[in-house]
Design a protein that fits this description.
The chain is mainly alpha-helical and about 200 residues long. It has one domain (about 15-195). The chain has 8 helices and no strands. Helix 3 runs parallel beside helix 5, helix 5 (about 115-125) packs antiparallel against helix 6 and helix 6 runs antiparallel to helix 7 (about 165-185). The radius of gyration is 17 Å and the shape is globular.
Length: about 200
């Protein structure tokens, strides 16, 4: 699950430009992106991508939402950095790998030609691309980010694990709920929009 390869075949280039290109490609050409840019064992770029998305999303939320992070000992700036590092460097990778394990278990009986766990980690990481905007406290925007991320996840499952779109929707529902409904707070955004208390 944590295998990284020195010189992977295919996969993503490294560096800031490659991260920006991946973000644009996955948002606007997801079918092509998932078909060509995810390689077995090449998790490093995907994990960096997910970490960057979470960093931007959480930093935005911390700056725009009052009391969004705990302040320890009156040290506001240090608490900000600590909370951001905790979210991006520990919580996000752990949640990503646990959700990839759930996705893999769901795929085992229904996707005989599925890709590996490493590819699942990558598809989940890249599907989070829209969520760079999810820290802005506008429920409609958060809901769109969550929904768009879920759609990207389904496309990734369809392309990488070679299942029909309908099957990808069903098999990707629980991981999408974990990442986008709970992780990026899509469910509360939808509840607010629908007036659910």
């Amino acid at each position: 699950m944590t295998q990284w390869v020195e010189n992977p075949t295919g996969g993503r280039d490294r560096g800031p430009v490659a991260l920006a290109q991946a973000w644009v490609e996955v948002l606007f050409r997801p079918h092509r992106f998932f078909r060509a840019a995810v390689a077995p064992g090449d998790q490093a770029p995907g994990l960096v991508f997910a970490g960057l998305v979470v960093t931007i999303e959480e930093a935005t939320r911390f700056l725009l939402v009052e009391n969004a992070y705990p302040v320890f000992g009156g040290q506001t700036e240090l608490s900000f950095i600590f909370a951001l590092a905790l979210a991006a460097l520990f919580v996000a990778p752990a949640a990503l790998h646990l959700t990839a394990a759930v996705q893999t278990l769901l795929l085992i009986p229904f996707a005989p030609e599925r890709g590996g766990v490493s590819e699942t980690v990558q598809l989940l990481a890249y599907a989070a691309a829209p969520c760079v905007f999810a820290g802005i406290p506008i429920p409609a925007l958060r809901a769109v980010c969550a929904l768009y991320g879920a759609v990207l996840l389904v496309i990734g499952v369809h392309k990488i694990h070679r299942v029909s779109l309908l099957r990808a929707v069903v098999l990707g529902a629980i991981p999408a709920a974990i990442i986008f409904g709970f992780g990026f707070r899509g469910f509360p955004a939808f509840e607010t929009l629908l007036g659910i208390v």
